[in-house]
Prior knowledge:
By secondary structure, this protein is mainly α. 82% of the residues lie in helices and 0% in strands. It has helices at 2-25, 27-30, 38-60, 69-122, 139-153, 157-180, 186-215, 221-231, 237-279, 285-312.
Amino acid sequence: xxxxxxxxxxxxxxSCMPWFIAGMINPGWAVPNxxxxxxxxxxxxxxxxxxxxxxxxxxxxxxxxEPSLLGWLAGLAAVPTELFVERRWRxxxxxxxxxxxxxxxxxxxxxxxxxxxxxxxESGLRVLDPARPPTNADxxxxxxxxxxxxxxxxxxxxxxxxxxxxYSRYGHVRDVIGSKFDRREMTYERATGLVSEVCRSALDxxxxxxxxxxxxxxxxxDFVKRRLQREGxxxxxxxxxxxQRRLQLVDDTxxxxxxxxxxxxxxxxxxxxxAVAVSAVETARSQAAVDADQALQDLRRFVERTPSYSRxx
Length: 313
């Protein structure tokens, strides 16, 4: 046993200098840290490993002086083996940290979504459950449920609430129109057709927002910002530019989504105007016809402007 320790000390001491030289040339060869630094190479091969060598050699002298070949070979293989094991261990720790961070983020998003939904539910908004859409849902409601799920998968519960708002306005306006006009009337068909067109326009915009959100879902902007703040001056210029470009992509995408959100707000306003105008219709049929026609004309003008909204966004 003491002979093995003596041989191990000699083998480790012999391998220390080549690894030190390699680490001075490229720190990534000799240290498992990320990012590797030359001072870490100097500390590891100039102090830590020599201390281990001296301690092992002094301890082994209790058994006399007879270093073994097996110990010497083990000492030569100690550094590459340790680097391999430590790199694997560090990668495992990073994966575990990423997993824990992902789980914490999911819990935070779930709480935020629940808070937002509670706030909106208190204000009378209908909440659309993507997993269980209404049994009598038409193609617009089903598409809204699918789009809301896509936004939730992209971790954008704030935008997913837009699906609930469109769903609520869509159902509310149709209910108001159904309460004021007979389903056999031409006015009813015209009104529901225009409302469906406006909601499909808003749905198309929301689907575009979901596609943009999915495009940047893999970019952790907070992590990039922390890294730039912590290591900005020490990072190589190409890496720093790549990180800054990543942040710019997120900012540009957010600006596009805000523009698209404005067109959704315009559609919701048009639906609100229609609901208010139609709900104000009383039993006096002459006044009812005037109010209804005015509301439908406003809605038709919005539908005609829908392509211009799309082009400007």
